[in-house]
Amino acid sequence: MKIRLGVIFGGESVEHEVSIISAIQAMNKMDSEKYEIIPIYITKDRQWFTGEMLKDIETYSDLSLIKKYAKNVVLYEKNGRFVLQNKRGFKRIIKEIDMAFPIVHGTNVEDGVLQGYLQSIGIPFVGGDVYASVVGQDKVFMKEVFESQKLPVCKHIWFYDTEYEEDSNPIFASIKKLGYPVIVKPATLGSSVGIKTAHDQEEVKTAIDEAIKYDHKIVVEKLVEDLMEVNISVLGNYENQQVSAIEQVIPTKDFLTYEDKYIGGGKAKGKLSGGKFKTSKGMVSANRVIPAPLKEDMKEEIEKVAVDAFKALGSSGVVRIDFLVDKKTNKIYINEVNNIPGSLSFYLWEPIGKEYTELLDDMINIGIRDYKKRVAKTHSFDTNILKGFTELGGLKGMKGMKGKLR
User: Contact 137/190 with Cβ under 8 angstroms?
Assistant: First the structure.
């Protein structure tokens, strides 16, 4: 019997379109002998839709057609079943799913919001839980976790938008102490959205103004000038981990931009493949060298730190961990962890012999194991401390309970 797999993508995020590309790539590579693939698309205004048309990239050239022809649904638990129910007209059940596979990127979907909903209704799902998702999306939380584990991160400061608007002088002083040039980032976005470099205070002002458009929490890091950017993917959960090949990514500026990642059409070196789309191929479009030209000791160091970072966040499924290498000092720094990476980083696994279909199978199996472990734990007690509550006179009786409840 096939597993009914609900692939969730889209959402209210600036990485909405990237999510569509990643999800359609994955659905095209899933084993149709094992899975009944049910697309679940979340629009930018948070409406959920399902229908076979959502597997075709051409559908998204006119989003009005989706609202007209796809089924507007809600996902919920009904008598132990996880169902997609029609929101329009007759509230009939459109589909039943056994497991969810979120392939989402960015705020409001990748950051624990969606994972929290899935966990609250009790459905098995692929990828990290709420905690890993939240910390992995917030660069401030992430850096603090890594620092507590003595993992290498760049010198940085962070602040809230209100602090900057009330008095920017202490912030500028802290940035000056870091030393120019710096890189300014919204704390909870991905895909390099809202990121700018700055070489003096005037440029910092411009960069902060840009970042504040997207987030209330801003990170400013010391820029690694003699830079090589390398990425590695980790597959597994807290018990077992595997590492992929390491890539060197070739930015057009001081860092890998959104355009480098998703719009650039440069040819990559290495064994790469993907869906045949007329639009961007997601992270496959970026300029890269696989394997990265690294000495064996640095390669081993990156692999070890990547696994340590993965475990520190309690990650699950596939993540991509981006590193900055200072070529002058040969020091490495964790840049960030991508909980649900663009294209699920399949292009980093193919060079070591793991085809995309196998990678997806592995992720689904890990999700099933995570679910079994999660439901085996105790989450509530049978004892009802409110039993007999009405005998105490309802809410009025609570006055007499104050001492007993302390």
Answer: yes
